[in-house]
Amino acid sequence: RRTRLVAELVSDVTAASTAPAAPHGPQQDVRAWVASVAELTQPDEIVWCDGSAEEKQRLIDQMLAAGTLVRLDEEKRPGSYLARSDPDDVARVESRTFICSEREEDAGPTNNWVAPAAMRAELEDVFAGSMRGRTMYVVPFSMGPVGGPISQVGIEITDSPYVVVSLHVMTRVSDEVLRLIDAGQEWVPALHSVGAPLADGATDVPWPCNETKYIVHFPESREIWSYGSGYGGNALLGKKCFALRIASAMARDDGWLAEHMLLIRITSPEQRQYHLAAAFPSACGKTNLAMLQPTIPGWKVETLGDDIVWMRPGPDGTLRAINPEAGFFGVAPGTGVDTNPTAVATFDRDTIFTNVALTDDGDVWWEGLTPEPPAHLIDWRGNDWTPDSGTPAAHPNSRFTVAAAQCPTIADTWEDPAGVPVDAIVFGGRRATNVPLVAQSFGWEHGVFMGATISSERTAAAEGALGELRRDPFAMLPFCGYNMADHWAHWLEVGAGVDESRRPRIFQVNWFRKGDDGRFLWPGFGENSRVVEWIVRQVEAGRGLRDDASVASPVGKLPAPGALDLDGIDVSDDDLAALFEVPTEPWLAEADLTEEFFAQFGDHTPAELRAQLDALRERLAGS
Ligand code: PEP
Ligand code: NA
Ligand code: MN
């Protein structure tokens, strides 16, 4: 344990500076940054973290004593803990998330923007003295295997032991990172405070936080400042803040991609291996697809990641991908033995659960874990609960935090620093109408158009109400660290730089189409393997390994009659036709909405995507 008094550290550093780092110029000295943060936030002590098991256990013991964690039953859920957050600190706060680029148009119309100088002044105000009475932890971490060619490193300063322990699971915490930085590697300074200074002698609450919250990104200087929340997406800064918002800005500048995607390896009955990356908005079944158990014989799916993918054109002409994370921070409700047995097996031990319910025998429960709720629980707020309570036992956004290595279907290559070659990219949304079960793009530009226009209906009740489409381009709406339309232009550029023969094929899927009677037309879950099979066969067709098994429609290539394996499932001919229907009038109306959507981004919308919209309208007019 390397604890040093603040005064000692500060006096070490003669030129402590809060000046922002330049993106490609010389970076701040780590120790000077730590000292300047300590001077600003005034913690009682500073602890440099090394990622060791001993360090994790010490912090867990401390949180057990403080009431932040509850130990679960050692037989039922070994090495596992329950955390209950403040009831007002349970989710990401998009209204308080800012992209503070120098120019407003670089943040784009879909991000909150404040001029960097004004935001820095506000932040210096709220962070002043914010760690009084607390310990400041300095956590060096790597996103991706330490030292890997696609990996990046950062240092999170936090006053939350829950955050440190979660970072141990979700990232690679290691003092090797400090050596890489000393050797000149670029790093991301990520500052976090729960914003709850403790007065002398005052007793702490189990989950300190502040009503005022700031989740701030400075894309040019690659800095993150987060204040007031202890919740995952707001506080584990390696995840959404770094691996998506800051990384997307880095990727734009350096020719790679940082995406909100899962990553799986598929082995065909012929033992050929393919990799698929897929983007879905939150709550569209991303974790389920990441852990898919195929129902069709001879096919195997293995997991590499469930939330974030970094992709870079490789020396061999392929697009190579890593999962930069080391764990899963998954939504618990709806995850059960029936819907995702792989996830259930993953969190059977050594897991931190946040805001789920506690059973009388010291285990966890949430809606959807089992078909029948237990007769009595302690709910996520710590109150007695019975099935008659009329409130959810677990918070709808309650989570499990668990090492990816514990996943029974983890691929043996998931930590390959060089990444895996991506063969297929899939975009999905939640659409009751119009969008077919699966469609292949006519090419890369059309695929980027598909990604840019992903949408979901606002509610199930809004079926057919086209005015209510919620756009979530690339499933990146809350996560793109720069102008969303520039992101589309960047995708066009990256694709053009990958060899045509190895360029991933792009597809769109929709598991959620409904019939006129409101019924889901597709069984989903494990049966989605049938769609994955067709996608893989189309990738093989693109490489001359088999014939193309598609028919053209105005919105993309659809499975040719008989090409989608429906053996052993009950999908009627009428339902199948309805799953792939592309109705002209509603699609023309949707094209008008796409035009309005593109107009929001002005000149930033790439001409190629406007041309794709024109081409879509022409195909619809001719259909
Ligand atoms: C998060 O909020 O930390 C998070 C992982 O978000 P989401 O599940 O919406 O991607
Ligand atoms: Na969330
Ligand atoms: Mn996510």
UniProtKB/TrEMBL annotation:
Sequence ranges assigned to domain Phosphoenolpyruvate carboxykinase GTP-utilising N-terminal in this UniProt record: 33-252
CDD domains linked to this entry: PEPCK_GTP (cd00819)
Any single biological process term in GO: oxaloacetate metabolic process
Pathway: Carbohydrate biosynthesis; gluconeogenesis
Subcellular location as annotated: Cytoplasm
One matching Pfam family: PEPCK_GTP
Name of the top EC class for this enzyme: lyase
Cofactor note: Binds 1 Mn(2+) ion per subunit.
Reported cofactor(s): Mn(2+)
Residues reported in the UniProt entry to bind Mn(2+): K240, H260, D307
SUPFAM superfamilies according to UniProt: PEP carboxykinase N-terminal domain (SSF68923), PEP carboxykinase-like (SSF53795)
GO molecular-function terms, A-Z: GTP binding; kinase activity; manganese ion binding; phosphoenolpyruvate carboxykinase (GTP) activity
Main location: cytoplasm
Binding of substrate, residues: R92, Y231, G232, G233, S282, N397, S398, R399
Keyword set includes Transferase: yes
Sequence positions that bind GTP: A283, C284, G285, K286, T287, N288, R399, R430, F525, G526, E527, N528
Function: Catalyzes the conversion of oxaloacetate (OAA) to phosphoenolpyruvate (PEP), the rate-limiting step in the metabolic pathway that produces glucose from lactate and other precursors derived from the citric acid cycle.
Family: Belongs to the phosphoenolpyruvate carboxykinase [GTP] family.
Record's protein name: Phosphoenolpyruvate carboxykinase [GTP]
Species in which this protein is naturally found: Promicromonospora citrea
